[in-house]
Structures are given as C-alpha cells and as structure tokens.
Amino acid sequence: MSGAAALPMYDWPETRAATDALWAAWRDRLRSRGIDAPDRLDRKTPSEALWRNPGLLVAQTCGAPLVDGRAPGAQLVATPRYAAAGCEGPHYCSWIVVRREDRAQSLAELSGRRAAINCFGSLSGWWAFRAAGVRPGETILTGAHRASARAVAEGRAEMAAIDAVAWALLGAHEAETARALKTVAATPRLPGLPLIAGADRSSAEVSALRESFLDIIAEPRLAPVRRALLLEGAAPLAREDYAQVARLITSSTAHKLVSGDPANAPFRRSAAPQVP
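Given the sequence above, the corresponding structure tokens read:
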C-alpha cells in the first residue's frame, strides 16, 4: 500500500532542508523493511485531508485533532521529544507572549485582551489559553505561530500563545521579532505533537514506522539534522496519554486538567529564556 507522508508542523523554510534529510533517512529505512514510502513529503495536501486519509503512511498533528474527530481512526506512531525551553520529555507547553514594553506581569492581567491565534483548532495556540485560565477578548486569525508572534510584535494583537518549539525556532531564525516580545508565563504542559498513521495501516506497518523512526533519531550521522529540528528523541505514547487533551477541550473549567500535578499548576511565571 502506498500513501502520503507529511511532517508539516514545524516545517519552516529555514529548517526545510533538515526536514527533507530526516525524511530521506526514514524513507530508506522503511523501504528496507518492505514498506512503499514516497520519495518526497507531501506539502500541498491540506493537513486535515491527510489526517482523514485511511491510507496515510505518516504525518504529524497536534494533540487536538487526535481527540476532536479531525483525525478519525489515526494510529499513534510516536511522539517526538524536542530540545526547547518548556519541553519535558514528550510533553510541551506554550509561552504566552506580549510586547517587550508591556507592563503585564501575570496571566491575571491578560484576560479580555486582543489575541493573535494561529487557528481555533490549535492546542498550543488556542486551547492553551484556556488551560492557563486566560479568556481572550477579540481575536485575529493568523494561520501560524510565527505569524501570531509577528502580529503581537507589530502591535496588531496584544498577546499570543506560542508553542514552545516554535518559540525556540523564532529565537533562532527571526530574532528581531523574538526580541520585540517577552514571555509572561508558561501554560500547563501537555502531550506533544504525535506522528500518526492512517486507520488502514497494519499493526506491523505502525511498528515498522515507530522502530525505524527511533533508529534514525539515534543515528550519529543525523546529529546536525536533529539539532536543526530541535529533535532529541521520541516516546511511544498511547492514545490514552492524550486523554487530558480531550478533557481540556470538553471541560468547562480548564483548571480541572491540572489538579494534583504541581508541575502543571494553572500557570507558571515565565522561565523561558528572554531574547537579549
């Protein structure tokens, strides 16, 4: 069975060559195991169409589509671990950011403000506000975390929730925008962005996808690729591990999500590295 492959969630122009190199190594490992992996990643098909394709070979999504019906029947392959402030194992947070000259010191000061949102289906860009107890006022849709950061830096919005990995990439590749912003707090950590396969993929294929990905993550020759993508490993999370995401989306009180876990207090003062 042939099918599309897409790894679009952090596919910035500056990291695209590294993403392609990662896929080439993974593709070759899969082919050596008898799996028909495409030559190139699919960057044209809309993400939701890929997630709904039962023949999908592999793609990356955030936790929300996995539990809200946008990726019906998707099978979990693995959840990458990233080397970025705010990431811990296969979990990550969002940094709530404002302009550097903004006097806000706590999340309590942010409710009702105009927010830049990448999309309303985003766990890290929209639901993260709810997890932190912040209720945005007016919202503007930007389509991407990078664009949300720019909207705040340019004064078109007053705040944004920026995925921890996107925030680290922004500091590396768009330092001027990052320097115009400051982090106020981290949202609760949630399971990270999983790699998924389509519903029609066999258990043997899913196992091969997982095992070959773990293999290439450990290859010494791919160390420069991993550094460029901030990848440091992967974890075989199960669908049950994403139940807290479903609770966040369905709960009327997001604070229930974090009860009993001191590391996931409703919000934490920012410990993110500020850009000098």
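The two ends are 51 Å apart (CA to CA). Try to locate this feature in the token string yourself.
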